[in-house]
Amino acid sequence: MSNSNTIKIDGMKNFIYIILVFLICFIACEDANEKHEKYLEIGSPVFAGKVDSLDTYPGFYRTKILFYPSVDVNKKEARIYWDNFKDSVVVPYVEEYQSDKPGWYEVTVGEAQGFASNNFEGYRTFFIKNYDVKGNHSKTGELIVQIYGNDFAEALSNQAFSGFDGQNINLGAKEYVSGAVIEYTANDNTTITKYFTEPVTSLKLIGTDLDLPNFKSGTILRYKSVYKFNDTDLDEVTVGHWSTSSIIILPPQLVIKQTNIVDCDASASEHSVTVKVWEGEDWEASCSADWVSLEKNESTGRLNVSLYENNTGVRRTAEIQVNVVGKSGEDFVKTVSVDQGTSVIYGKTNWVELELADNSGSDYGWTPAHLWNNSAGGTGYHSANSDRAPYLVSINLGAPVSMEYFRIYPRSAHGRAAVRWEVWASNTANEVGVANNAENWEAKAIETGWVKIASCYDDNHASFNPVSARITDQTPYQYIRYRVLENSKQNSAYNLMEVDVMVLP
Question: Residue 152 above 70 pLDDT?
Fold first, then answer.
């Protein structure tokens, strides 16, 4: 009996326990449902499609932003932010903003947004969000953008000025240079500004197809280089400051390589004078003397001059006028004097070297004594290898001589001919007292009794024919000094084969 009651009580307890568990679970489920219903009513976060790809094209105080939105049939617009989200622009997904790149959109910002006035330049961070028609936005995209400006332009450097070669102003090449701004003074003193849209390394001043027409000689030019760093850049960048050239001196418009034609004796002779004019110009020559014949060599640019034999028994002179065709004035007309004598060579038997302290040295056994051995071949004079112009050779003629001409025979080998030279004379043979390259040598020479009796400029030494100079002072002199001021081969020793003193017969 007692056992059966115990079983009934335990069974009732289990039943009650099961009912309680069921009620607790039911109540808990009701709470969960209520909470779930609440969130369903609010709605979970919904994002528009994020921009898939971004790109940028830099410009001067502006930039072009390009973006490729993800596929989203509900996309409405993109919003681009910068300056820590202080400024923005809205880009609707309409045809107006479609890029040439299929599926891409683009917008240029900066001009309307005041980038220049706010000096908004350098590397800047831009942000972009997509918005759909329901107002949902995408997660934020980020892009680092470079914007050029005045500070950037000022930090750039111009091309280096590389000098003037006689026809062109040269500028050094530089990576990314795409053009230049050039400012120069014209012949009428006006200032001209030219813009070049291609890289500039040479600016032609002389001839045809000029880059800087009517450039005024003796002035400078100012210039700024222009850069383009990427093909996609919106703008080129001009350097923010000027650079200047040195003073540009244009060469003469007419150059005669020989100002005197001198023929010591009465025989017929042939001469050739180099004439140079600017590219695109032409020249002509004339002479009134009937014993002078002229021929222009078109291929070489030389004037061939023929002197007929002098049967008059006396010295005769003439002038050849060379001028630029169609031009007048001293810059376009030059004169070549012609001098044909009837002199003969003065004997050299008694000649010896006059040893003075400022004489040039010699090398290879080619001493000054070889200059009066009556031979223009074989051995001549070779200055010391360390010597440079001026070169000075002094001669004792053995007795005072009234001279008509002084003639030299250049050495054809090695191309070392006298371009500018002179002859000094004296009857006292005094030391000058300074080195032959001293700036005051000429003044000291005059002080010590030396007289300049001849001078010659002849840059027409291609044939290495004998060259003569007229003696301007026929006073008899015993001592002479041959002084070469300019050698055809700069920074080199000087060579000469023979010299003649010419006198009246």
Answer: yes
